[in-house]
Amino acid sequence: MKNNILIPIDFNEQSAVALEHAKYFADILTCEVHLLHIVEDSKVLAIFSKDTEYQKLTEMVQQLLNAEANKFDAKTKVVTKIKRGKVYQQIEEYIAEIDPIFTLIGKTEKPSLVKRLLGSNTLHLVNEVKNPVISITGTKVIAPTTECPNILVPMDFSKNITEQLTAAIEFAKLLSSNLHLLTIDTTTSVANEASLLIKLNKTKKYIEEQNIVCLSTLISDTKTEVADIINDFAVKSNAHLVVIMTRDQDNFKEFFIGSQARSIIENCQIPVLSVQPWDLADKNSIFATVVDPLNIINN
Length: 299
Description:
Layout (H helix, E strand, L loop, with lengths): L3 E5 L4 H17 L2 E8 L11 H19 L8 E7 L2 H12 L4 E4 L10 H12 L4 E4 L13 E5 L7 H14 L2 E8 L4 H20 L4 E7 L5 H11 L4 E5 L13 H9 L4 E4 L2 H4 L18
Parallel strand pairs: 1-2, 2-3, 4-5, 6-7, 6-9, 7-8, 9-10
Antiparallel strand pairs: 5-10
């Protein structure tokens, strides 16, 4: 990966939240920032079919991009880009071109000339690009003025969570944040609960050995949807970021996002960092170090 981050924006409120995150990350990473706006080819753009009218549109958009770029610290290099076409395809192509550390993408509430970013476009990106994606639905912002950031890591120990845990640890070090591990027991089995507690405690101990403050919680609930439990707990625990795996490691070649991951991405009011399982399967790890605490992943 190159030392840059990508923010696709459409100048709405959620884009503003994404930009606030970008300012924070740009400062601590000392990285380049790319602001990307997509003018979507659609019937809505018929009024701009003439070259002269489209030129006026791009000039207006460029002025807006320049205004956003000027809000960054002077030491941060900001690149602005306007592309035309289908939103997710253009973002995906640009990600392949610049290879960002991650992409920050916000939600569009109101109709505009640009298709809703969060929804089908975000799900396409999370599904198909290897680089991590941070999707933003709420207004929570990680910023230097906040308390120590708290990263929530919902863990399904029935799956391989190597990449998820790796990402969580690296972001915790990056942000000097705490980690909060959450696992959910959807059975009524005492033995299953005991097994989850053992794995949870082993993982917590490993994280603490990395000099990271770590909390852990086990919730037993046989009725509520897992995604709803996670979304609710993210708010109650004052999380600043939720780190999830988008699908099972064993099914990484299938082109779909797990239903629980999708529900978290679409509904969580806290920024969600989505991690792909093929980062390691393709021997092209996004992160510098791979962790497997006490070999619990394979047990």
